[in-house]
Structure formats: C-alpha cells, structure tokens
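User: structure tokens for this one?
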Amino acid sequence: MAEKKIDKSRRNFLFGAVRRIRKEDDQPVASTAGGIEVVKAANALYVDEQWEEARLKYKECLEQDKNDADVRYRLGVCSYKRGMFRQAKLEFERALRIDQTYQDAFLYLGLTLVRLGRSDKAPAVWSRYFNPSAVKVMRELNLQLGLIETGQPDPDEDVALAVEKAIAESGGAVG
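Assistant:
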C-alpha cells in the first residue's frame, strides 16, 4: 500500500496563524512513515560514527524533506568527518537558514571555515555560538577567538585540532 505524502508547506501556511495565536511550537513532522525509518537508520549510523553510510542515509532523508535543520546539520557533520569541507560548509549554512539559532551549526561552520583556510571568517560565526553545557568547547573557542582577533592565531590545523579535541572532551554535549 502506497503511503500518502503530506504537503507540509500548504498545511503550515493554512494553520500557521492558528499556531501563532495558540503560541504552539512548530514541530517537524516526517512526510511518510518510511521517512521516519530512514531518519532512524541514519541516526543509528551517525551514533556509531559510520560517517559515509550515515551521510548517504541523510541524503535520502532530504528527498522527503529538504527543510529539516537537524538532517542538514548531521549531514554537515558527516561530510566534515569525511573531509568534505565544502559540502559540510554548505550544509551548515543551509541548517542555519532553516533555524537561525542552531548553536552546533555555528560551532561546526566556524570549524569548517578554519579547515578551508578561512579562519579570518570564523570569529563572526563562533561569536554566535553559546552552549553553557559545553564549557570546554566555550573555553577553547574564546581562546581561539582572542588569538585570531589579536592577530596572533595558531596555524589553521592547530586551531581545528584544538577545537575538535574540546568537542570530543565535552562528553557528547555537542554534535
């Protein structure tokens, strides 16, 4: 039996005013039950750090819903972990277009800019990141921001490795 796809954009348009009046949060809804299974499979691969397999599954998820900030973010992380920095940058920017408050997307977008040799652009992005549960990450970013802004930055590779180490030591508070 074929599943019926829900036209979320039209539904959101029609019921958006009602949700705003009721002050209800707009919760993402998968287009089909099959879409939910693909997201679950992608998330399982992501948790297992099977980056390439997860990346391909997240690309499948985008066929169902191109405006899912979480899928875009996780696709960006998978691309980043695979060394596909241009693609990662694109996905983090898309996630931020969808959700302008997506904190971890700011973190990884800045990190991706450093990996692309554009560390001079990282301070503008990292200054928007705030996560009080990731103290080590915040401390490392503040140190790197200070060094970059005073004109005494470490080499890009060292900056990226230091931030990645802080993320790893944060105990899963990010990503």
